[in-house]
Amino acid sequence: MRVLMFGWEFPPHITGGLGTACFGLTKGMVKLGTDVIFVVPKAYGDESHPGFRLINASDVAMDFKDSEQQEFWNKIKYIEIGSNLVPYLEPEVFETLAEKETRETSEKTRTIFFRKFKFSGKYGKNLMQEVSRYALIASSIATQYGFDVIHSHDWLTYPAGIAAKKISGKPLVIHVHATEFDRSGKNVNASVFEIEQKGMQEADRVITVSNLTRQIVIEKYGINPEKVVTVHNAVEPSYRHETATIRKHLKEKVVTFLGRVTYQKGPDYFVEAAHKVLKRDENVRFVMAGSGDLLNRMVRRIAKLKMGTKFHFTGFLAGAEVDTMFAMSDVYVMPSVSEPFGISPLEAMRSNVPVVISKQSGVSEILKHAIKVDFWDIDAMADAIYGILHYDGLQKLFVQYGKEEVDNLKWENAAYNVLEVYKSVL
């Protein structure tokens, strides 16, 4: 079986769990003998893609004489929105003058059909433009390669998947790693919601990363439950041994938050829980690893609570930096308000770090050896952190059985379930 797969990012160039999940799932599928063609808007040349083909959309040329492609281009609705959208974050909308919008739209109409498009691969203010152009490239790729099924990861690639389906007639499976309701709460971006809903409606099957996300897809997007299937994520096994030699330079215990510092991830609840822990034990350090739109607010709140000497900000971490951070941590906390899945707790447990996670996360559906609290219950969160730090038996229990638990969460198992979804539409 050959799969034409569309993603938006690929390790090591990632902003969160989306790229990590794409890499793990693809490797798992290759191990099961599946032929995968993975397309990204921009490849940097240092990506690891053993056993499958990685296509850089920026290198793909379109043939304007191809009647099938031309027919599809004529039906394309070109969308451009002046927004700074990131797949997981709330959109920051920029106001633009109507006169400028008209002029730019007119210019796009004249220049859109270049032979090649150069994608930035970023999440800047031209993201919607790139999403639309990516769909055009997908229509070209669909005529150049043979494949049995199309797989699109997250909303940025749904238009590309739809385009490939219309050109090839092959079935489309979309993979929902997050929804606009997770990213933005009640402040849903209507344009993103429309793209997500259209992708779900056009898809032959919808894969969600948790039952929590499945319910959102059914209830908020009105999708038939019979075509929505949950396939939980997994975690890459750790082959890095150099972290075993890392030694902390601090005598205090270290409690870590690692993720985007945004509404969805609940960083403010982590800060408030930290304040309660420090009232009971001053020999603890807290680390917030990540960046996001709430970072400055977190800094101000920590200053107001006079925790500056006990709280550290590292900025965004990736790759070996994440492993190093976990090697120095005694507890990992994921207080997400709405987390479709959450791979980072699995990475922490893989590194022998006990975890405290919110009940409002998809990963809580499969983890047994983790302390689960409501994201808003900062007292319970503080008690959980304090308990792990001060009761050696509890910590050893979670370390031993947690490591065994995540070692059995393999991407090959997730890949097998995805292949079963493919078979159901072929």
Q: What distinguishing features does this structure have?
A:
single chain; 426 residues; alpha/beta; Rossmann fold; 2 domains; 15 helices; 15 strands
Account of the protein in words:
It contains 15 helices and 15 strands. The protein is α/β, with parallel strands linked by helices and 426 residues long. The termini are close together. 47% of the residues are buried. Helix content is 42%, strand content 15%.
Tell me briefly what this model is.
With 426 residues, the chain is α/β, with parallel strands linked by helices. Helix content is 42%, strand content 15%.
CATH class of the largest domain: Alpha Beta
Q: How far do the termini sit from each other?
A: 10 Å
Low-confidence stretches at least 5 residues in length (pLDDT < 50)?
A: 72-114
The average pLDDT value, as a whole number, equals: 85
Strand content: 5-15%
CATH fold descriptor of the largest domain: Rossmann fold
- Please, how many domains? 2
Biggest sheet features: 7 strands, parallel
Q: Tell me, what's the shape? A: elongated
Number of beta strands: 15
N-to-C SSE string, H for helix and E for strand: EHEEHEEHHEHEHHEHEEHEHEHEHEEHHH
Record the SSE blueprint.
Blueprint: E1 2-6, H1 17-31, E2 35-40, E3 53-56, H2 67-75, E4 83-84, E5 92-93, H3 98-111, H4 127-144, E6 149-153, H5 158-168, E7 172-176, H6 180-184, H7 190-202, E8 205-208, H8 211-221, E9 228-230, E10 253-258, H9 267-280, E11 284-289, H10 295-304, E12 311-313, H11 320-327, E13 331-334, H12 344-350, E14 355-358, E15 371-373, H13 378-390, H14 392-407, H15 411-425
Parallel strand pairs: 1-2, 1-6, 2-3, 6-7, 7-8, 8-9, 10-11, 10-13, 11-12, 13-14, 14-15
Antiparallel strand pairs: 4-5
